[in-house]
Amino acid sequence: MKKILHTIGAIFFMALFCISCTNLNEEVYSNIVGTNFYQTQKDVYSALALPYQRVAEVNTGDFFVHNTYTINEITADLISLPQKWIGWNEGGIYHRLHRHTWTPSESTIYDAWCNVFKSIGFCNNAINDLTNLDYSKVGLTDNDKKLHLAELSVLRALFQLRAFDFWGTPPISTSVDKIVGTSSAQDNFDFIQKSILDNINTLPKAPAANYDGRFTQGVAAVILMRLYFNAHQYIGKDMFTEAGQIAQDIINGKYGSYALDADWNTEFCAANNLSTGLIFRIPQAKNQNFNNYFFIAYQVFSYTQAIWNSYTGYASSANCALGLNPSRNSLGQIYPYNLGNAYERFSDKDLRKRQHVIDATQPNGYTGLFMVGPQYIYHTNQRLAGFIEWSGVSGVFFDDQCCTFAASIPSLADRQNLMDDAYTSGLTYYRYNQLLPSDNSTQEFSGGIRLCKTPIYPDGDPRVEASGDPQIRLEEVYFTLAECKFRAGDVQGCVDLINQVRMRAFAPADRASEMLTTTGFDKYALLHEWGCEFLGEGRRRTDLIRNDVFLSDAWWDKAANSAPYRAFFPIPLQAINSNPLLQKTPGYTY
Amino acid sequence: MIRVHLDTITADWLRLFFLFYFLAGTFFLVSAQNEIGVSGKVTETDGQPVIGASVMIQGSTKGTITDVNGGYTLLHVPTNATLHVSYIGMKPQNITVGGKTTINITLADETVNLQEVVAVGYGSLKKKDLTSAISNVGSKDFVQGATNSVAEMINGKVSGLSISSNVADPSSDVSLQIRGIGSMNASNEPLVIIDGVPGASLNSVSQQDIESFSVLKDGAAASIYGTRGANGVIIITTKQGTKSDKVHVGYDSYISTQQITKLPDVMQRDDFVKYRTTNQPDYGGNTNWFKEISRPSFDQNQNLSISNGSENSSYRASITYRKTLAITDNVDREEYGGRINFNNKIFDKRLELSGSLSIRDIYSNALPTTYNVWDQAAVNNPTMPVYNADGSFFHTGSTFHDNPVGIIKNNINYTETKIENYDLTLKWNILKSLNSSVMYAQQIIDNDNSQYANSQTEINYEAGINGVATRAYSKNTLREFEWNTNYELSSTVHDLKLLAGYSYQDVENTSFNVSNSNFPSDVLLYNNLGAGSYNSLGLATMGSYKDLAKLVAMYGRAIYSYKDMLLLTATIRHEGSTKYGINSKWGTFKSLSAAWRISQMEFMKELVSKEIVEDLKLRGGYGETGRDINSPYQSLATYGGTTKYYINGGWVNAQGPTINANPNLSWERANHYGIGMDYTLLKSQLTGSIDWFIRDSKDLLYTYPAIQPPMIQNSIMLNVGSIRSKGFEWSVNWSNKPTSKFKYSVGFLGSYTKTIVESLSNSLFSATFTDLYSLPYTGTPGTAIRMQEGREVGEFYGYRYAGVDANGDWMIYNKAGVKIPEAQKSEDDKAYIGHGIPRWQLSMNHSFAYKNFDLSLQFKSCLDYNILNARDMYWGLQSTAEPNTLKIAYGKNKNITGAIMYSDYFIENGNYLKLDVVTLGYNLPIPKGKAISSARVYMSVNNVFTITGYTGSDPANVNINGLTPGIEDVNGYPVVRTFTLGAKVNF
């Protein structure tokens, strides 16, 4: 009996032990679980920072392929991503974007969709979290809360405007869990307008303390200005008067004080925190964050930047994805299109139309917007060794062409001769004696002119990675007002405004002769100015659409008269597959 | 907890067979009539008396045991009773008394095969009592010779088990798969259990320490492992000390070497200069890169063991040393292992304390990770010299390629791995029929990896970086606690075994890594991380990580046997894991299987007595299992974000949800249905089994495009979709009645499996297909494999080759079957162009023994499948991006100048037949009374020859497991033949 009691006792004890080991809540160590995220003020700012961190990607498009940047630039006339020998074919997706033959299932368009709605999701999540958070518990006030929610609403409006611009009838999502379908264009318009009007007065005016990298009234006003400026495309209604009014108000200082900088490159240089023309910039600092991938996308695959620029920061991730659309054929002749020819639209005296060089004697310490023509080892006269197609040849030359020269020349000696000629000629193109095919499949790895929108400082320079990322510039307001005046028939007013911006790109001696006049100034001239000033800033498609040339006109490797429905991108098939409430974009064959 | 579940769920079964028990007992009681006395003698077939044999009156507990002369006497035996006579190792007999008072009985040896003890999970059973598909391989049947993984020791020995590995790389992992594929995002590898510890590492045990592998193939058997049982279970049992009057010492050793039998057939200097120098420079050298990076391999493995046992305690201890110098220069691996197993019985055998301790240290220099050196050797320009005139490494000038000799010499990838296992079991024999035991086990795997790429590697040389050093440490800790209680109730007619248990397991992973670059000198290697300059530039990287997952389970099993004729097994497991969503933490897994021993039936009596049929058993069962989620925290909306943003006057990490939460996330379910038959026929000469099975895998874990908006991230892990595997597998063994001089046996086993994607959708998330295996970057030929509802897993989906045009550009057949140029192709023109899973996997084993010699041959074959020869696709065309090409680019493919395109031109028939292993052994004649009790030497050759039409490397080297089978990836790794010389001596 005693034995049985012992047995039962022991088993009972064991059973108790086992029952105590049935708690299956997860213990998380190297991540933070949402439910206990908000502990201090800093966590509130971390949550607020996340949508801000997405602005670069959605507004200008910060990286290279697979995003908002690609679909707004490659579909237009200035930037392209041709196949480079066997690289960058990616199933022909960039060719289709360039040639306006994209389909509803393109991964790039779907990725852009995901990026935009991820950003909107972050806004909704932060709005949801912060609305429910007791600010007093983290040492903040209800005023802070009101301000933060206003910032998030305006951020969401900026992202929604991008979705609106791309897809025409995107869903309006304001909750973290409600599945919604497509919304009408008018609803989108009203939502964005209301988001700005309801919140603009809560935001501070620039200059405001601690508002570097955050939205002020000026940013909200620009968003509304963009909405009105392109209203015809969005809701079929011209609102240039309203857009022009906001532009004028911004210039007049109604939403904060701004002024054009003295030099063309102040907004892009390392010290752009001192710029008076930047309405919104993303502060960057070495070892903190550096998201300005402009130069990576335009750099050269399999060759390190160290040699070019003595900058090793992104040596291994450089991609030769993007370049300017070529201005010339293999014979060196300029293409006859009304659009495109990105490089040759710049005046020869333009300070921007030069090889990018860090040079202390220049304003803001550098000059040139491009890597063009012969390339040398940093601050030497020593040629770089040719690579891939040009292996075995001395010299790397970025040509304003898009042809497979090396592959067309069997003899290594002949290749060297062509390279030598390119080096000594002082031109930006090869002088070849035959007409070679030139389209989106005929690029060389070292082909095409590269854009250096922000300066690339050498290793060890304190300015390395210190340039804030310029996102919204006062120049856009000037150009918007100029175009509004142009449309209202005030060509002189238009040209005057543009000249105020343009003159800074010339040496003082050249300024008088390089001023634009109303003579022959048409919408193409206006578009060329937009192109030169905002080259590679992720807005070209919108500008072309507003001026009715995006579909109708031809440029290099893009035929005239694209189908009318291509003014908007198709709501991606992948998104519709996962959410049947979304409707297909009319015109496209799904 | 256990009781609750037995009550609620198995109560019905329990009630049923208690009722059955009661009825049966009553029947025998009422049938008792007149009684007589019976006596006689029990002898073996050769007339020797059987001492201690049990003679029982069937249906009662009355019986006796034979004396030293084999004699017995039983009183009060009903005249119509049946006597059941049994003795271990002999075939039991039932004899009708029929009024006789003297009954002499001759017992025959039982087929050893049927007496084998097979591990079944939380216990073991005799093979003849199994009711489900379990294959057991004992040490005498292991594949002999050098292997990288102990799993290769049963390669070709278990039908339905598919093993893939890269023989030539000593650090490569082995891939195991049972009965085809069932999952997309969860693992398809079976659960490995070593000495009762689930999840133990295959690397923790030496070949020579393994006693047996038991492979639980069907759900009825694996169900007791719940969420981890769906892919089957491999139970490894290590050798224990046995009762003996002398200490056993064993020495087991082999040496082996590998010979390259096949390499990518690339051009050497002469051909290269002839064909490639229009586009590629001629550097003037003449280098066979394969020769430069390879060397004769050498592998040695030494194992010394000592074991002993007495009535109450036993032990076995062994140490192992292995050193492998791989065929790739500078790649090697050294292992030191020690293991002690012990068992002690104390307090009059009331308590049993057993346990084991094993430690294994592995030091390896693996291939550098930046470039695959064999690939580089294949594609690099053969006119490049290895060294410049000044003795420095020749640099290629492009980070696409590195000097292959430089890859090996300029990189270090050194890893120290320490695996420590221990387990301790305390078993309390409460009653003869009741015992309870607790086990605690722990496994720690320490992995310390150090890498250094010096200033001369191409990437660093080009970028002017003076060395990149990385240290990474990771630790995996597995803790297991188990409490098992066994109860056994048996009579001559009924036999009931009950098990109830509780199991708790947690697995913790921690890691950290640090990297720095640009060192003052290459001499420092990775030993002075602080000396690199990247730290001060803010470019050095570091990271650390920790996760923890817990698994808790309660389980029970009942095994009932009626007269050895009807066998029933029922199991249940209630299990939960921290990895699952908050709404679905717990699940219950049930199984029921039954076997009917037809050979026990009356109508088989004649066949049985003539020994035409010895044992014939029909089995059938149903089992529920699950597949675990690979990593923890998949269901939670964890916040994260390392990108900094300047806000409110300071830098903060911008943080938010990093995954879309799924509170319903749970394990994958798999329901198994199977019937099978085990047979022992023709005087035990013919044995084997056959099994038909269906496995329905449901609620598959799959990453779907999220509904965005409102979801934040663009994918979400869900339980959606189902896959069905169907097939059959068999094994047939024939062996002659062994004589002292000659033994011969042949085994033929194989499986046929077909795996169909049934669905990829549910009400909210839908997909009809998913594309897998993105073919590598060059030219971007897209994905190779499409999984589509209603089709098989692993089908190739691409264009159909229709020749080339006059310019050498590809032509394809479009959707309508019309030839079109490749430039006009569209997605619609793609078609299913082959399948990468062999439907038939066969193997055949022959073994001969003549006097002291033995010879075994093992053949292996895979049939009815295709292989995508991606090596030809990437390296076999003139347009290839690489400097060098295969000879076929200017031979067989000379008319093709188009760029890489994925089409059925590169899909080949993969069928092959291979003589996989030949082993010749000789047992030295040792006279009795010497110190040495036995000695054996053997020689074996692996990969002897292959008959195949496949033109790539070796079809057997192409992975056939997983979701993307049958792709010979772009890989220059050589095919090798291994020669092993071994000796085993026992003292």
Form type of chain A: globular
**Overall body shape of chain B:** globular
Q: State which percent range the strand residues of chain A make up.
A: 5-15%
Number of strands of chain A: 11
What is this structure's SSE topology?
The complex is a heterodimer of chains A (590) and B (987).
Chain A: H1 2-20, E1 32-33, H2 41-59, H3 68-73, E2 79-80, H4 93-98, H5 107-132, H6 142-167, H7 185-199, H8 217-229, H9 231-235, H10 240-251, E3 278-282, H11 294-297, H12 305-309, E4 323-324, E5 357-358, E6 366-367, E7 370-371, E8 373-375, E9 396-398, H13 405-408, H14 412-425, E10 450-451, E11 469-473, H15 474-487, H16 491-502, H17 508-514, H18 523-533, H19 540-546, H20 573-578
Antiparallel strand pairs in A: 2-4, 3-11, 5-6, 7-10, 8-9
Helix pairs in contact in A: 2-5, 2-6, 5-6, 6-7, 7-8, 8-10, 10-15, 15-16
Chain B: H1 2-30, E1 35-44, E2 54-57, E3 63-65, E4 71-78, E5 82-86, E6 93-96, E7 105-107, H2 112-115, E8 117-119, E9 124-126, E10 134-138, E11 161-164, E12 175-178, E13 191-194, E14 197-198, E15 210-216, H3 219-222, E16 233-238, E17 248-262, H4 269-275, H5 289-293, E18 298-309, E19 313-325, E20 332-346, E21 351-365, H6 373-379, H7 404-410, E22 411-431, E23 434-453, H8 458-463, E24 468-490, E25 494-517, H9 534-537, E26 541-562, E27 566-577, E28 586-597, H10 605-609, E29 613-627, E30 638-640, E31 644-647, E32 650-653, E33 656-657, E34 668-681, E35 686-698, E36 701-705, E37 715-719, E38 722-735, E39 742-759, E40 769-774, E41 783-788, E42 795-798, E43 800-804, E44 810-813, E45 819-821, E46 831-835, E47 840-850, E48 853-863, E49 866-869, H11 870-875, E50 907-909, E51 912-923, E52 934-948, E53 967-968, E54 975-986
Parallel strand pairs in B: 1-7, 13-16, 49-53
Antiparallel strand pairs in B: 1-4, 2-3, 2-5, 5-6, 8-9, 10-15, 11-12, 13-14, 15-16, 17-18, 17-54, 18-19, 19-20, 20-21, 21-22, 22-23, 23-24, 24-25, 25-26, 26-27, 27-28, 28-29, 29-34, 30-33, 31-32, 34-35, 35-38, 36-37, 38-39, 39-47, 40-41, 41-42, 42-46, 43-44, 44-45, 47-48, 48-51, 49-50, 51-52, 52-54
Helix pairs in contact in B: 6-7
